[in-house]
Amino acid sequence: MTHMEVNFLETDSREFGLFLDGLRIERNMSREDLCEDIMSLSQYKRYLRGDTAIPNDRLVLIADKLKFSISDIHLMYRDKSDNQFNKINEVYTMIQSHNYNEAYTAAMKMRNDVFVSSFNMLYYDFCMIYLQHKLNMVSDVHVLELYSDLVDYPECASNNSFNWVEMNVLLQIINISSRIENYEPADLMYKILTSNDVSFSMSKNINLLPTIYVTLGQILGKQKKYPEVIEITNRGIEHCRKYEVFSALALLFLINSFANKDLGNEDVAIQSARNAFMQLYIENKPQKFEQFRYSFENKFNMSVDDLICL
Questions:
Q1: Is omega for the bond preceding 154 within 30 degrees of 0, making it cis?
Q2: Alpha-carbon 166 to chain mean position
Q3: Which end is more exposed in the chain, N or C (fewer Cβ atoms within 10 Å of the end residue's Cβ)?
């Protein structure tokens, strides 16, 4: 999978080849007509597969046959990729606002588009699968199959890098699987997040990863894997502090506190709980504060007022 920002010089040759083939389709031209007097059809297909980059001299001839200059081709590739990404991003924004019907209508308008990059296609397919599940078009079992096919799960767990969409898909897999008490995806995610050999693209993952750390901490807690909960929440807290992402920080502290409490680490548990409530005080979220208060006082058998005064 590729990066979001499209730069022609850095772009995978397969994606550029697919973009050219999309222009061919838009020009109502057959592959045979496009290739005539330029290259064999088999060679053209090798370019589409990304086996090799299209030589500049042949690209000039292809562009000319499509009635564009090379400069036109490069600019159109960049602009089309950016515009297409923005349209998919609008669908995802609707999803985040829980406007699922509106998002599905917008996504369906794009269903016949020629996708400029494999990342855009991955992003679009993720949105469509997510919407179909939310709109009860597919069952939990079926959506797990669709998500797994989309990112080649579980084989993808051996990857050394993950983009934002791949991480989002894995988040959906662990959420849905845990509801039916299948914790294997959560265990695989734990290995991914605690590996020092794995890297993440940090465009949108900066904001997504805290949610994953929280979700994983909660699922591991249900399995009473308290050392793993502490490890994953500590990593989540470090991430939030490093990138100044605070929306999940209080909950990470609270989950960490509960796990330490269950292991008998009273002093660490108290300090983590205090950090959770201090973070909520900074965020000025009274409703969330009361929710945390109820959970804390049931777990620790002490009042939050006493905690703050310690």
A1: yes
A2: 5
A3: C
Spatial CB neighbours of 183, under 8 Å, sequence gap ≥ 6? 177, 219, 223
261: CB partners within 8 A, 6+ apart: 269, 299, 300
Instruction: Give burial (CB, 10 Å; 0-12/13-18/19+) of 304.
Output: buried
Write the CB contacts of 100 (distance below 8 Å, at least 6 apart in sequence). Answer: 94, 131, 134, 135
Task: State the Cα–Cα distance between residues 104 and 13, nearest whole angstrom.
Answer: 31
pTM beyond 0.90: the answer is no
Q: Which helix (H) or strand (E) holds 50?
A: none
**161 forms bridges with which residues in the sheet?**
199
pLDDT for 56 beyond 60 = yes
Using the predicted structure, report yes or no on whether residue 7 has a pLDDT greater than 60: no
Position 283: which residue type?
E
Q: In whole angstroms, what is the distance from residue 26 CA to residue 243 CA?
A: 43
**Other C-beta atoms within 10 Å of 27: how many?**
13
Rama region for 136: left / alpha / beta (φ>0; ψ in -120 to 50; rest): left
Q: In angstroms, rounded to a whole number, what is the distance separating the alpha carbons of residues 267 and 257?
A: 10
**DSSP H or E stretch at residue 87:** helix 70-96
Q: What percent of the chain has pLDDT over 90?
A: 71
Full DSSP string of 246-279 = -TTHHHHHHHHHHHHHHTT-HHHHHHHHHHHHHH
The per-residue pLDDT for 310 is: 64
Of the candidates 258, 277, 260, 208, which has an alpha carbon nearest to the alpha carbon of residue 236?
A: 208
**Residue pointed to by tokens 């920002």:** 5
3-state helix, strand, coil in the chain (%, to 5): 75, 0, 25
